[in-house]
Design a protein that fits this description.
The complex is a heterotrimer of chains A (about 400), B (about 280) and C (about 290). With about 400 residues, chain A is of the alpha/beta class. In chain A, about 45% of the residues lie in helices and about 15% in strands. Chain A has helices at about 10-25, 45-55, 70-85, 100-105, 110-115, 125-130, 155-160, 170-180, 195-205, 215-230, 245-255, 265-275, 310-320, 320-330, 340-345, 350-360, 370-390, 395-405; strands spanning about 30-35, 60-65, 90-95, 140-145, 150-155, 185, 255-260, 280, 295-300, 335, 365. In chain C, helix 8 packs antiparallel against helix 9 (about 195-225). The chains are: A alpha/beta (about 400), B mainly alpha (about 280), C mainly alpha (about 290).
């Protein structure tokens, strides 16, 4: 779902120097190579490119669609190309890889372009806050976003006389009430995307990504509560340890689970199948009133090797400005990042848009540090699966995570 | 009548059982590709479709680049077969017919090529191809595929050639033929079945190869394996297209083998040694 | 062209291309295994000698992955061989629809790993898969099984998929080998009064010996190195239940960025396969 993003910090001095030279010749003819990925293989950015080139006759956009393949294919291509010095000028990237790209020094900071960009105010401060790198600079230009929320079968909730769960304990009560023959209260993801669920339950439930706070008694209790959803309370299907996006969404569609966590990207396919019986609400909060909704971005970044960063900036800022951004996200099936565009957003039913915008307040990302990518892809899934299967002790796992983030 | 009965029991029934195993999943895929996508999430599972639809196949062939991708895959696979056989045949002949110093070492050396996991070589190979300016060309993929299938091709062909008696070579040489002519006119016809097996192996391996096709090519040259990955998106898997694509992607190799399998006939019959 | 140089001339083209495409990357990988190489810190590459190897070997996950690889290779290849050999024997006989049968048997082999992985994952799905649906309806299993989520059944599941994929390789390779056995040998054996079983043991098997040995060796090396199917179906999970050595190497390098250690793991895998090959070659020499 949310994948690593690649950000590269270029030598700032060289970059600024180059940019200033190019500012002096704004009409120099340029080709901008841009990598993107759309879920729908029939969707094409050609319309947007044509419109852009008409308004900017000296710039040609060479767009290349790279297979997403679950995320790792896109990343493999991008990494390999960047390491071999053969990457594009700009590409769609994700926050999760920001730390690594910064380390690799392949990104161009865009702060200089942001100051004075009219479209900046059309993107909410909450979103800008999430896009700052650890060194305080901006490398990513937000293009689309999602935040996770809780899907629930409101028809079943009504039938059982249950209220929308606001806290985690409400959530457990509802899940238990809705578990029956061939039906489970909650579809849990055990594959690497499941870390988002874990954050909602465990960080929301009392842990925190700060030194010492992944192994406090409250943190350990939250993790145990989460594991017990599967092991003790059995509100999740037996296949949960390796269930991924496809399984959790299909289980919702098939009427096997009552709730699960995902984001607006799947709203349309669920509504197509379930109609009004499916709705979404912000994720429940923990005992301290803290909630964790995972913020997932799609952003554009400019790479240090870009020959004409000014032209690249024109293209990506066009994509992140109101009319084009709305059109782009209609193609991508994600949420527009512009506030003005969100007002009349009609790609998804209103209740899902509301759940998304309401969740922005508690939207967070995993720590933007180097270890995160490996944590998400390998360490967390392996360890978590072992805990779910009873092969590893949950408390030990939390201490292991503490060690990884705060050695 | 008794013979026919025996054939059915001893040969045809077990064959059907094996084919049922081989084709079962593929047929299930075919069925999924001609029914509405929502059938997939019905419980309890509905085996027979409620309605049939060709929409997925039509969409695949008309509105995606699948046909071009098939063409790219075909070119790469055919190239791999030709280059692979062209390199492996002489090498196999050398290993089979000559006893020279370093023979065993060389044979083993080729095998070692396949012992290293390719995924760890992809980065240096990308850099190499880039320096040779070969990225995103048919040649890049054909040569990469041919290289990594070479060990198998050589070893298999050597095995098949070992089954051909060396007396045939001697007879030709005594008659004044050169080594080249011996290989071309005596050995080659007899190693026909072996070449079919190796040829199909080369074709299929190249056809299904994914990692090189993704990294070393991808824009101008995009094979079906890479194209299919386009259907696996962030927010969903385009299941209908994937099933349609999956059903079609196995057909070229199958048809090819259907045409070639007639050559899988015993090459050595009495009287093959011409005077 | 004299007798000494001819074989080398024949080998030259193959050697050249292999040298170019393999020698250089492998040398690079070997070099990386002796350095600290992190994909995301490209500037620093200190020489660390055998540290990566020691780290790799002292990691319990390595030993788990080695164990998994062992089961994966020997278990699945033996089943692929048996099924493929049976198919080859049948396809060698004459019956009316033999041509079609031969072509259809290769369908599993002709599919890309990602398709095979996806279709088997779906067929084995807990709630929506046909295996559970048919299994319970036909009474073969009492309740649905979470095939890919249980450590005991996950390995069985991925092995089933790779056996399905791989048995046609043996079918075709051995069928071609069967064709190479001269008909006179069978006739002679019949004249000597040999039974069907006798002909099998004394004509078929010896005639096929070389091809069988080669096919087994090649297929074992291929399966040992493959990770596509497992990656798609389980990602190595649940936990480390299906994590094989090449997958472990890849994840170490690409997910963790620890390219040095990943290269070391790949070299270890290569050495193990090399050792196995030498061992089997020595065994053959003794005969």
């Amino acid at each position: 779902m949310k994948r690593r993003t690649l950000l590269k910090a270029a030598g700032a001095a060289a970059a600024i120097g180059l940019t200033q030279r190019l500012y002096a010749f704004p009409n120099k003819p340029a080709t901008v190579r841009w990598w993107y990925h759309f879920d729908d293989p029939k969707a094409s950015p050609d319309g947007l490119i044509a419109e852009f080139e008409k308004a900017n006759p000296t710039i040609r956009i060479h767009a290349q669609s790279i297979p997403w393949g679950g995320g790792s294919d896109y990343d493999t291509r991008l990494y390999t190309a960047l390491i071999a010095n053969h990457g594009p000028d700009t590409a769609m990237v994700k926050l999760r890889n920001l730390p690594q790209l910064v380390e690799m020094e392949v990104l161009l900071p865009i702060d200089q372009y942001l100051d004075g960009w009219p479209g900046k105010s059309d993107i909410s401060d909450a979103i800008w806050k999430l896009h700052v790198a650890a060194d305080g600079k901006h490398y990513y230009l937000p293009l689309q976003y999602i935040t996770t929320y809780l899907y629930l079968r409101q028809d079943w909730f009504q039938k059982e006389g249950l209220q929308t769960p606001k806290t985690l304990s409400d959530f457990l009560t509802a899940a238990r009430a809705l578990t029956g023959t061939d039906r489970w209260g909650f579809g849990l993801r055990g594959d690497s995307g499941g870390v988002d669920f874990w954050c909602t339950f465990v960080i929301g439930g009392g842990a925190e990504f700060l030194k010492g706070e992944l192994s406090t008694p409250a943190a350990l209790a939250a993790n145990q509560w989460y594991i017990d959803l599967y092991r003790k309370n059995k509100v999740c299907p037996p296949s949960s340890p390796t269930d991924g996006f496809l399984q959790t969404i299909n289980n919702m569609k098939a009427g096997r689970t009552a709730m699960t966590i995902h984001h607006i990207g799947s709203a349309n396919q669920l509504t197509q199948e379930l109609g009004d019986s499916i709705t979404a609400v912000p994720v429940p909060c923990g005992p301290a009133g803290k909630a964790w909704s995972t913020y997932g971005d799609g952003s554009n970044a400019i790479f240090a090797n870009c020959v004409n960063p000014e032209a690249a900036w024109r293209w990506i800022s066009y994509l992140s400005s109101a009319p084009a951004n709305v059109a782009f996200n209609k193609l991508a099936g994600q949420m527009t990042v512009t506030t003005s565009g969100a007002k009349d957003w009609n790609l998804h039913p209103k209740r899902f848009v509301d759940a998304t915008t309401q969740s922005l307040a508690s939207a967070r990302t995993l720590p933007l540090v180097e270890q995160t990518a490996d944590f998400v892809r390998t360490v967390w899934p392996q360890t978590n699966q072992e805990e779910l299967l009873g092969q590893a002790a949950p408390d030990d796992a939390m201490r292991k995570f503490e060690q990884i983030f705060f050695p | 009548m008794k013979g026919r009965m025996k054939t059915v029991l001893v040969t045809e029934l077990p064959m059907l059982a094996i084919l049922a195993f081989a084709l079962g999943p593929w047929l299930w895929m075919l069925l999924s590709s001609i029914r509405p996508e929502r059938d997939m999430t019905r419980t309890p599972l509905m085996i027979w479709p409620s309605t049939l639809t060709l929409a997925h196949h039509i969409e695949l062939l008309e509105r995606t680049s699948f046909v071009e991708n098939l063409r790219d895959s075909l070119i790469v696979a055919a190239g791999t077969v030709m280059v692979g056989l062209g390199l492996a045949l002489p090498a196999a002949y050398a290993f089979s017919r000559f006893r020279f110093r370093g023979r065993t070492t060389m044979r083993s050396l080729f095998l070692i090529i396949n012992m290293f996991p390719i995924v760890m070589l992809i980065l240096p190979l990308f850099i190499l191809m880039r320096q040779l300016r070969l990225l995103d060309t048919y040649f890049a993929l054909i040569s990469a595929h041919a290289t990594f299938t070479l060990p198998f091709a050589i070893w298999l062909l050597t095995s098949y050639m070992d089954g051909i008696p060396t007396e045939l070579d001697q007879a030709a040489l005594i008659d004044g033929a050169t080594r080249w002519q011996t290989m071309r006119f005596v050995i080659l016809p007899l190693v026909g079945p072996g070449m079919v097996a190796v040829g199909i192996y080369l074709f299929i391996t190249s056809w299904n190869e994914y990692l090189f096709a993704l990294v070393l090519a991808g824009e101008q040259v995009r094979t079906v394996t890479v194209a299919l990955q386009m259907f696996i998106g962030e927010n969903g898997i385009n299941w209908g297209l994937l099933m349609a694509g999956g059903t079609l992607v196995g057909l070229p190799a199958t048809v090819l083998f259907l045409l070639l399998q007639r050559r899988l006939v015993g090459g050595l019959t009495a009287g093959a040694v011409k005077g | 062209m004299n007798k000494r140089t001819t074989p080398w001339l024949l080998l030259a083209p193959a050697l050249l291309i292999a040298g170019l495409y393999v020698l250089f990357p492998v040398a690079q990988a070997l070099s990386m295994s002796l350095h600290y190489v992190n994909l995301f810190h490209p500037r620093t590459r200190p020489f660390v000698g055998l540290t990566n190897y020691l780290n790799a070997l002292s990691d319990p996950v390595f030993w788990r992955s080695l164990f998994n690889s062992f089961i994966w290779v020997f278990g699945s290849v033996s089943m692929q061989f048996l099924l493929g050999f049976g198919a080859a024997l049948l396809l060698n006989r004459s019956f009316a629809w033999r041509g079609v049968a031969r072509a259809l048997v290769i369908v599993p082999w002709a599919l890309p790993s990602v398709i095979i992985g996806l279709i088997w994952t779906w067929m084995l799905d807990f709630n929506l898969g046909i295996v559970n649906a048919l299994g319970t309806r036909l009474g073969l299993i009492s309740s649905p099984i979470a095939w890919l989520s249980r450590p005991d059944t996950a390995m069985v599941a991925v092995m089933l998929a790779v056996v399905w994929q791989g048995f046609p390789f043996f079918a075709v390779t051995l069928l071609a080998g069967l064709q190479g056995i001269p008909a006179e040998l069978y006739e002679a054996a019949s004249l000597d009064g040999a039974s069907t079983a006798g002909k099998f043991w004394h004509v078929t098997l010896p005639g096929l010996a070389s091809v069988i040995a080669t096919a087994l060796l090649l297929r074992m090396i291929w399966v040992a190195n493959s990770l596509d199917l497992i990656l798609v179906m389980t990602g190595g999970g649940p936990g480390t239940a299906t994590l094989t050595l090449p997958l472990h190497a890849m994840l170490t390098a690409w997910s963790g960025g620890n390219y040095g250690k990943g290269s070391a793991l790949a070299v270890i895998l290569t050495l193990i396969l090399l050792g196995g090959m030498i061992f089997s070659l020595l065994g053959k020499r003794k005969q």
